[in-house]
Write a structure and sequence with these properties.
This protein is mostly beta strands and 235 residues long. The protein has four helices and twelve strands, in the order H-H-E-E-E-E-E-E-H-E-E-E-E-E-E-H. A hairpin with a 5-residue loop joins strand 8 and strand 9. The chain is globular and about 45 Å long.
């Protein structure tokens, strides 16, 4: 049993690059006494997403997180996920006004941090798929909010890949500037992302209008600052 456990941790560590870039996001972070925000809200609260592998039979489906919590306030957001036993913890922090994106990763007892600005984001997303985004006049309600549909196509072709839904009913400016959906100026409520041959589907299940402590957007702890290349090399 001990050998099996150690082997599982070893496998998790060696495949952490898959989990490192699970997304976002971006869309993109349960507290009681909450209410759902509406259009013209204060721009402060949290969104709870359900996360599922697009292909449940994929090699790494069992390693995927099952949920993501996104907290937002004053055009800042933080997305937080972890895997089973919290062996891998991931945080993505975006400060839209300053054009700064921070990535915090904890793997077992090792903690790393990478920071980017708007001019250096290319080094992070050079391998991210490039899409053509076609917004449609189609809508559906997700977590109580009206969401518009956008069809996602392979760049430069008519190959339809999947659909996403986003809302403008949350007061937040350019929530996707740091990911492949930067052409959508609205909070992603249902979408999917592909990283290292692993497809994940995100859908918002609950939105809560609650006060968010500004301190959550400041990384805490003894993280080792490294470059993206060093992080990739480690993984």
């Amino acid at each position: 049993k001990n050998n099996l456990y150690l082997q599982s941790l070893y496998t998790l560590k060696n495949n952490a690059s898959i989990l490192l870039v699970i997304a976002f996001a971006i869309g993109t972070f349960s507290w009681g006494g909450c209410k759902s925000p509406g259009k013209g809200s204060t721009g402060e609260g949290l969104i709870e997403y359900q996360v599922n592998p697009v292909n449940s039979n994929s090699a790494f489906a069992a390693m995927a997180p099952t949920s993501m919590i996104l907290k937002y306030k004053n055009d800042k957001l933080i997305a937080e996920m972890n895997t089973g036993l919290s062996a891998v913890e991931i945080k993505f922090i975006s400060d839209n006004k300053r054009g700064k994106f921070t990535q915090c990763v904890k793997i077992l007892n090792q903690k790393y941090i990478c920071s980017f600005n708007s001019s250096s984001m290319g080094s992070l997303f050079k391998d991210v798929p490039k899409y053509d985004i076609r917004k449609m006049e189609e809508y559906k309600t997700i977590a109580g909010l009206k969401c518009q549909k956008a069809e996602i196509y392979e760049q430069g072709s008519n190959k339809h890949l999947f659909d996403v839904y986003f809302t403008d009913e949350l007061k937040f400016t350019k929530p996707n500037w740091w990911n492949e959906f930067s052409g959508i100026d609205g909070m992603l409520m249902e979408y999917q992302m592909k990283r290292y041959n692993m497809d994940l589907h995100f859908i918002a299940r609950k939105i809560s209008s609650v006060a968010i402590d500004s301190a959550v957007f400041v990384p805490k702890g003894n993280y080792e600052t490294i470059s993206q290349n060093e992080l990739n090399s480690y993984f």
